[in-house]
Amino acid sequence: VPDLETPHSGPATTISPAPRDPNKDVEIANMVRTMFSQARDYRRPLMPLWRKHYQTLNLRGGSSASDWAPEPKMAKVWPILYSMVAWMTDQRPILQVSPSPEPFSPYGEFYQQLANDMNTTIKSSFMENKLDAEVTRALWDMGTYGIGWVKTVWDPWLADGLGDAVFRRVDPFTLYPDPFARTPETMGHVIEAKAVTVDDLD
Question: pTM for the full model?
Answer without folding.
Answer: 0.74
